[in-house]
Amino acid sequence: MARLPMARKVAWSVSILLLLNTGGIGVYNGITELADARTPLQKSVTLGVLLYGIFGLAAAIMLSARRPAAVWLTVVWAIVVTYVASTAALAYAGTDATVGAAVGAGIGALLLGVGVVWCARVVTRSSRLPG
Q1: Nearest CA among 64, 119, 55 for reference residue 84
Q2: CA nearest 45: which of 78, 72, 82, 10?
Q3: Quick one: which of 24, 64, 101, 129 is 20 to 30 A from 94 by CA?
């Protein structure tokens, strides 16, 4: 039983770092690359990058404070990250991109997102337990 709190602490720290990393990069890239997006699909991807940046930073703040809002913020972040990962290759690579690459990127992003959402649920729930 002594190892469980340490595992939660590691998952919590990794989740916060992941949210901060994607959040910072997402805000920066979303702002700087918005003018370069040409097609509606490219614009949706770039807007998604900006959105996951904003939600990632907000989720990192809430998760570090162990606030319940971290759960819904990480859910939104995970949805947007999954959309961007699965759509970016098709939006920017055009005919050179394969559907398999888009699906693989989406699945990878989804798995990371599910892990962060799980961590947010566990950490915020355990902070509200009595005792």
Answers
A1: 55
A2: 82
A3: 24
pLDDT tens-place string over residues 87-97: 998 898 877 77
Q: Are 14 and 63 in contact (CB under 8 A)?
A: no
Parse the chain into domains and list their residue ranges.
40-131
Residue 93 has which token pair?
């690579």
Contacts of residues 7-11 at CB distance under 8 Å and 24 or more positions apart, as own/partner, are 8/119, 8/122, 8/123, 8/126, 11/115, 11/119, 11/122, 11/123
Query: Element (H or E) spanning 58, and its range?
Result: helix 40-64
Residue that has been written with the tokens 């590691």 in this structure: 10
User: How do residues 109-125 score in pLDDT, each as one tens digit?
Assistant: 999 999 999 999 999 88
